[in-house]
DNA sequence: AACAGAATTTGACCCAGATCAAGCAATATC
DNA sequence: GATATTGCTTGATCTGGGTCAAATTCTGTT
């Protein structure tokens, strides 16, 4: 998951052919050449499952463009989203060859993959890769823990408001000044995906969206296009004491 | 408490004075000497808050003995536990000087601390420390995500059964063969702490404990001492498809 | 042993969110 | 242009777990 400290500009790192913050921010020419040899691209269509939980993983990868979700399921079909993969996010872990989650493309997606074994060997020789991955993993852990608070203790309305403010914030950091009061963005998730993320049913998501609209917290044009007239109001509804999103 | 006196063999790494898997498993004599210089011990009593969210952190640390919890709170007082710190676990992150969570001792606890700046500098020079921390952080992330599934999608009864099976499993890995059908252990948590961990109220925890007892899934001697006559039954109640605990 | 205080259990009641079931709107297919 | 298909909304009803309150252990102290 990406974070507030990661500026979109930092995603493309100069003339690095991989253009990925996890592995190339501090790579020298020699290291980049090594990476070049073990890398390949894979693309998936929206809705495709990229990796099934339990699958053999012979690669680690980073998202170049598009969005994917990490989900866990109970055998009776209950599913919980446990993470989002946004451009520049990393998936797969050195040292383990089985996937722990389902990874599903929610939009068309392009992944930059590295063969696992050589990547691990390279990591041994190239300390700053482990350091960078540690940094990213710690960010993800913070995000996951923030989400635990949401899942365990927030009301449905607060959950929705939290998700909206997070998406708004991320969109804003890409499209406009993050301090603007009014924000406009498209939801990258269906109601069902929102429900899976928030630990709710899609009906409750829909009802709370309608409630927030009725109360003037948000405006909806169509189903995906959202206008937030007053971000402070939305953040208040989210129930966070802090200024909002660690998440995403 | 059982955990104070029993240390898994793997925690003590040879003649390393720090005896901590995060930082010394592959340290040579020279590195150990450096660590020795920046380390100190702190101890806390059960109930004490070790670190407040937002506090300045001038150290990173690992638990030598005892148990602590990581909690997040909303400003109206709702709290959610987001992690447990057990002996050998690491807390604090290189590269950030503000704590993100409250850390509270649930038993008397001894921590081995390293001054942050020199630790970071040492990490730069000593690749395997970052590699080890990455490994540990990835494990924690998996645990957090497993917990997200629990928080978002499991019923109260399943949550309790999950927690019990996790504690049983961890205890078993210390005290006896993990494959035994019957298990006996002490809960290291109060009902309130269990509730904070599971995203429930303490009344619901109590009720579900009683229900599991009534249904013969567990036996209770006193409030903390638990006997599980049939671990498979408990795991079934936990609703996991896998064989249980990534967690803890 | 008796008491105080905390932790836990149990009961009665309530409500947020789940479930079940229709309708509606937008897009894709023929 | 008619018709599925898919995603979303809304309504009616039910229920798991929350809330409030009162016992009942347990623990430590005098």
From TrEMBL, chains A, B:
Keyword Transmembrane: yes or no? no
Do you know which Gene3D superfamilies this protein is assigned to? Jelly Rolls, Winged helix-like DNA-binding domain superfamily/Winged helix DNA-binding domain
Stretches assigned to the Cyclic nucleotide-binding domain: 23-140
Please provide the record's keywords in A-Z order.
DNA-binding, Transcription, Transcription regulation
Q: Does S-adenosyl-L-methionine appear among the keywords? A: no
> SUPFAM superfamilies attached here?
cAMP-binding domain-like (SSF51206), Winged helix' DNA-binding domain (SSF46785)
State the organism of origin: Thioclava sediminum
Matching PANTHER family: CRP FAMILY TRANSCRIPTIONAL REGULATORY PROTEIN (PTHR24567), FUMARATE AND NITRATE REDUCTION REGULATORY PROTEIN (PTHR24567:SF75)
Q: What is this protein called?
A: Transcriptional regulator
Domain (HTH crp-type): give its ranges. 154-232
Q: Which Pfam families does the record associate with it?
A: cNMP_binding, HTH_Crp_2
Quote the InterPro entries the UniProt record gives: cNMP-bd_dom, cNMP-bd_dom_sf, Env_Response_Regulators, HTH_CRP, RmlC-like_jellyroll, Tscrpt_reg_HTH_Crp-type_CS, WH-like_DNA-bd_sf, WH_DNA-bd_sf
User: Taxonomic lineage per UniProt?
Assistant: Bacteria, Pseudomonadati, Pseudomonadota, Alphaproteobacteria, Rhodobacterales
